Amino acid sequence: MRIYIPSTLRLLDDACHAAEFGPQPLTVYAVTPALREWYAEAEDEDLEYAAMTQAARASVGLLADDPGTPRRRVVVSAEVSAIPPADGAAELGDARLELHVVVPWRAVAAVHLDAADADAAGTVGKAAELWPAAQNGDDDALFALDSCEAEDLMWYATQEIPDLLAAEGPRGGLLGS
Fold first, then answer.
1. How far apart are CA 6 and CA 148, in angstroms?
2. Angle, in degrees to the nearest 10, between helices 161-168 and 9-18
3. Percent helix, strand, coil in the chain (nearest 5)?
4. What is the pLDDT of residues 123-177, one digit of tens each?
5. CA-to-CA dists, residue 95 to 15, 51, 52, 53, 70, angstroms
6. Whole-structure pTM value
7. Tens digit of pLDDT for each residue in 85-124?
8. Is 20 helix (H, G, I), strand (E, B) or coil?
9. CB 145, CB 131: distance < 8 Å
10. Which InterPro entries match (predicted)?
11. Residues 6 or more apart in contact with residue 160 via CB below 8 angstroms
12. Distance between CA atoms of 162 and 21, rounded to whole angstroms?
């Protein structure tokens, strides 16, 4: 099953070097029964996109917690063998799951990342700055968060990730160590 892990460039670099995503519990996004029920008429591809979009939104929250990392949303897609069954507590349309296992690096299928241009960085940076207010329902902050969805995420194959991280400089460069 495909899962989407919200991340940042710093967390992606850490996971690449550790060869896993964790620690447990790990919040991920996937096509859950609650998401399927909310989008009953949607095709599988649309459901996957909805789950990835929720993970991208969660990535903004991670950026808000780490002001030193570049203002670019990161979503890691991975294939796992099983997803725990829903406990019935999920809200309709929610793709969020809590995994109680680490996700090995070999399970990574691709990385989705905001472009490095100023428009994306400005939009995402503003949303990260306003994240706490958005969590409290502030309309302007929610608008800033929704504006991120207009920014396309670029796709990177697994073999491109080390070069991507080297170009971004997470170890001893742009992000520090």
1. 14
2. 130
3. 45, 20, 35
4. 999 999 999 999 999 999 999 999 998 888 999 999 999 888 888 764 433 444 3
5. 22, 5, 9, 10, 26
6. 0.87
7. 555 556 767 788 888 888 999 999 999 999 877 566 789 9
8. strand
9. yes
10. DUF6912 (IPR054206)
11. 111
12. 16
E strand or H helix at 91: none
Question: In this structure, what are the phi and psi dihedrals at residue 56, rounded to the nearest 5 degrees?
Answer: -65, -40
Q: DSSP letter string over 125-139?
A: HHHHHTHHHHHTT-H
Q: What is the dihedral of CA 21, 121, 114, 126, to 10 degrees?
A: 70
Query: What does the pLDDT read at residue 82?
Result: 64
Instruction: Considering only CA atoms, give the Rg of the chain.
Output: 16
Residue with tokens 């990385």: 111
Pairwise CA distance, residues 45 & 63, whole Å? 27
CA–CA separation, 20 vs 22, rounded Å? 6
Domain boundaries, given as residue ranges, for the chain: 2-158
